[in-house]
């Protein structure tokens, strides 16, 4: 039998995951400047997301610039854009259907490889930003919610409570007039 509480919990986790995917798409904190070695200048912090890059001054002032060209972006950010938008659209469909999210590993792999690359200056290195962690958490919520909804399908059981009997004709009725009784 289908558990209503289990189904509601699965749908709620799916909705939370979908909201998290929207946050991940909107937040510009995919890559955050790394403060390593002698690069401890904290007068400004650089954030790079899939749609824009931002610089936050120590005074609290923040300036963001939307990327001018999609073709100028690295392949991991182009893929992250596409996969994040696809996950949001599929999340909408999943929420609407309620019965049946973004691939962030590629971007994380690129950030980690660049961080440990000896070819880059320490001022060019980035760390994993909060958006990636939120994205991984929301992916887990979506998978758990979807799994709960899928595992909640009723089993194919032949235990029906309604039982029907075939109609019988009454032999005691006069010829030409047939009465039918239902049991």
From TrEMBL:
Transmembrane segments: 6-30, 79-100, 130-150
Highest taxon in the source lineage: Eukaryota
A GO cellular-component term linked to this record: bicellular tight junction
Bilayer disposition of the protein: Multi-pass membrane protein
Name of the protein this chain belongs to: Claudin b
Subcellular location(s) per record: Cell junction, Tight junction; Cell membrane
GO molecular function, one term: structural molecule activity
UniProt record, GO biological process: neuromast development; regulation of sodium ion transport
Organism the protein comes from: Oryzias sinensis (Chinese medaka)
Family annotation (InterPro entries): Claudin (IPR006187), PMP22/EMP/MP20/Claudin (IPR004031)
Coiled-coil intervals, chain numbering: none
UniProtKB keywords: Cell junction, Cell membrane, Membrane, Tight junction, Transmembrane, Transmembrane helix
Keyword set includes Membrane: yes
Major localisation: other
Keyword Membrane: yes
Family under the similarity heading: Belongs to the claudin family.
């Amino acid at each position: 039998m289908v558990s209503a509480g289990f189904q509601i919990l699965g749908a709620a986790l799916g909705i939370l995951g979908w909201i998290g995917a929207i946050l991940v798409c909107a937040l510009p904190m995919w890559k955050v400047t790394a403060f390593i070695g002698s690069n401890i200048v904290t007068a400004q912090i650089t954030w790079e997301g899939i749609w824009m890059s931002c610089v936050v001054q120590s005074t609290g002032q923040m300036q963001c610039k939307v990327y001018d060209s999609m073709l100028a972006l690295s392949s991991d950010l182009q893929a992250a854009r596409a996969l994040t938008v696809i996950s949001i659209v599929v999340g909408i469909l999943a929420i609407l259907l309620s019965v049946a999210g973004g691939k962030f590993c590629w971007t994380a792999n690129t950030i980690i490889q660049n961080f440990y690359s000896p070819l880059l200056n320490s001022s060019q290195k980035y760390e994993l930003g909060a958006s990636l962690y939120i994205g991984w958490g929301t992916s887990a919520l979506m998978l758990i919610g979807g799994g709960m909804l899928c595992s909640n399908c009723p089993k194919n059981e032949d235990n029906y409570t309604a039982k029907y009997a075939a109609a019988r004709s009454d032999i005691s009725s006069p010829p030409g007039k047939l009465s039918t009784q239902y049991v």
